[in-house]
Amino acid sequence: MRKMVAFEHLTVDGFASSGQGIGIEWTFRAYSDELAAYAQDHIQADFDMAVYGRETYLGMYGYWGAKDAGDGSEQERKHATWVNALDKVVVSTTLESADWNNTRLVKGDLTKVFTELKEQEGGTIAVYASPKLVQSLVDLELIDEYRLVIHPVVIGSGTPLFKEKSALELDLLESKAFASGAVYVRYQVG
Questions:
Q1: Crossing angle of the two packed helices 110-119 and 131-139, in degrees rounded to 10
Q2: Bacterial bifunctional deaminase-reductase C-terminal domain: from which residue to which, for each copy (predicted)?
Q3: Domains within the chain, CATH numbers bracketed
């Protein structure tokens, strides 16, 4: 059985999006080459399916879908090749289509869809960013693990990863600090 992981970048005060601009400008300070390489080679190494909410999908597709394997740094080229080949799911009630290659649009019963996907053979299913979608999946008890990069910033408001009154017990599987001040933690739902 496959597991479903929420892969998130968070502020110290628990926000996954500022709700302003692209919502993650606060990650730029601590997002280093060291962190990018670790994310690609370690955090995401077992991912074979990406899941996005509508807003994250549109941002990711707009940026990575337009990237050519020859664009950007070596790390960006490697990631672009990987993410463009990856199987993807976008959850949206308003999108009419999902045009990024290898992408399936889901509008229906999330419990049914993701339970069926988790029962299939394959690697880890990763929900990228999409805090509102993660909140729905938490309510449905579909998230098995959290892989969180906590950035050394406090923004005071925005979209939290966990909504008010969420209650989870988590077991720490691993952690790593980066020279930039970011910290990676991996938790399994207890």
A1: 80
A2: 7-183
A3: 4-189 (3.40.430.10)
